[in-house]
Design goal:
globular; SMI1/KNR4 family protein; about 200 residues
Length: about 200
C-alpha cells in the first residue's frame, strides 16, 4: 500500500518548513470549529504558501499574505451566496453525492482547502471524522468526488490523474515545479523544482 504522504514529499523534495507554527493551527482550528486532516497540515507546513505544478495553490495559517484562515473564510462566504435551488441534476452536488444539505464552513459542510488558477476548488467534506473525503468543483459547475485523503489526492494529481473530474489532468513531465509565493509587495515569486522523478 502506497504511503501517499511520503510519496508526495519525495516528489516535492526537501521541505523548507518556513512557516511552521503549531499555535497558528490551534488558532485556526478553534476559529473554524473543526480540525483539518493531519496529512494536509504536514504538507501545508512543509511547503506553503506555494503554487504547485503551475496551477495548485496552498495557503498557510501562520502568514499574513496567502493566509489559509482568510482564504477559507472568503471562499466560504462566496460559496454560501450561491443559489442552489433549480440546478440541473447533473450540477447539484446534493443529488450527485447524497448530501442531506449543502452548506459551507459548517461542521457537516464543505471546507475549501485548496484551489487552482484554472477555477477548481478542492473541498474537504466530513472534516474532523475518521474518514473525510474530497469534492472538487471544476469552475464550471461540474463536481467530482474522491473518497481519499488529501495526500493521496495530491499524489494522484501530481502524477497526472484526473483529480478534478473527467479530462482534468494537469500533468507536466519531469520534476514537479514549485513556486514560493511573494510575502510582501516587493517580493517576487521564487520558482524551484523538486527532484528528478523519472516521469
Amino acid at each position: 500500500m502506497t504511503d501517499h504522504l511520503s510519496a508526495v514529499m519525495a516528489m516535492l523534495g526537501p521541505a523548507p518548513n518556513r512557516h511552521t507554527d503549531p499555535a497558528a493551527w490551534d488558532r485556526l482550528h478553534a476559529e473554524l470549529g473543526i480540525r483539518l486532516p493531519a496529512d494536509y497540515q504536514v504538507l501545508v507546513d512543509a511547503y506553503a504558501p506555494v503554487q504547485l505544478n503551475h496551477h495548485l495553490y496552498l495557503h498557510h495559517p501562520a502568514t499574513e499574505r496567502w493566509n489559509l484562515g482568510r482564504q477559507i473564510r472568503d471562499t466560504v462566504r462566496a460559496w454560501s451566496e450561491v443559489e442552489w435551488d433549480g440546478l440541473d441534476p447533473d450540477e447539484d452536488p446534493r443529488l450527485l453525492f447524497g448530501l442531506e444539505e449543502l452548506s459551507f464552513g459548517t461542521p457537516q459542510g464543505l471546507w475549501p482547502i485548496a484551489s487552482t488558477d484554472r477555477g477548481e476548488t478542492v473541498f474537504l467534506v466530513a472534516a474532523g471524522t475518521a474518514a473525510p473525503w474530497l469534492l472538487v468543483e471544476d469552475g464550471e459547475e461540474r463536481w467530482a468526488r474522491y473518497d481519499i485523503g488529501f495526500a493521496e489526492w495530491l499524489h494522484r494529481y501530481l502524477v497526472g490523474e484526473d483529480m478534478g473530474g473527467p479530462d482534468s489532468s494537469a500533468y507536466y513531465p519531469g520534476p514537479v515545479r514549485l513556486c514560493r509565493l511573494p510575502m510582501t509587495v516587493d517580493d517576487r515569486p521564487e520558482p524551484w523544482s523538486g527532484p528528478e522523478r523519472g516521469m
